[in-house]
C-alpha cells in the first residue's frame, strides 16, 4: 500500500503533466491554420496591430466627419472590438506583466481569425 507522501508526489506529478500537456496543442498546431507556436504568435501580433490601426483610422475619420454613414462604421467597429476582446485582454495583461492563463490563451487562439476578419471587414468602410 502506498503512503500519503507517495500519493501526494504522484498527484503533483499527474497535475504537472496535465497542465503542461494542456499548454501544447494535442495535434495540428496552433490556431485554425495549425501553425507552429512561433508562427501563431507572430500572426496574432499582426492581427493586434491591424485592429489597432483600424481603430485609430476609425477615430480619425469620425473626428473629422469624413464618413458618409458613421452608424455602419461604428457598428462594424463595435463588432471588431467584441471579436478582439480576448486578444486585447491578453495584450493588456502582458503589458502589465500579469499572467495570461491557459483559458485566456485558448480563447485568443480560437478568436484570432474572427478578430482579423472583423478588422478586414472595416477596411472598405474607411474610404470617405
What does this protein look like?
This protein is an all-alpha fold and about 130 residues long. It is about 70% helix and about 0% strand. The protein has 5 helices and no strands. The chain has helices at about 5-20, 35-65, 70-85, 85-95, 100-120. The longest helix is centred in the middle third of the chain and has 27 residues, at about 35-65. The N and C termini lie far apart (about 75 Å). Residues about 10-25 have low confidence and may be disordered.
Largest sheet: none
Provide a count of the helices: 5
Instruction: Return the average pLDDT rounded to an integer.
Output: 78
Note the overall shape. Answer: elongated
Secondary-structure content class = mainly alpha
Helix content: over 70%
Cα end-to-end separation: 77 Å
Task: Provide the low-confidence segments as ranges.
Answer: 10-26
User: Total strand count, please?
Assistant: 0
Secondary-structure element sequence? HHHHH
How large a portion of the residues is in β-strands, by DSSP E?
under 5%
Radius of gyration: 20 Å
In short:
The chain is mostly helical. It has five helices and no strands.
List the helices and strands and how they pair.
Elements: H1 4-22, H2 37-63, H3 70-83, H4 85-95, H5 102-122
Helix pairs in contact: 2-3, 2-5, 3-5, 4-5
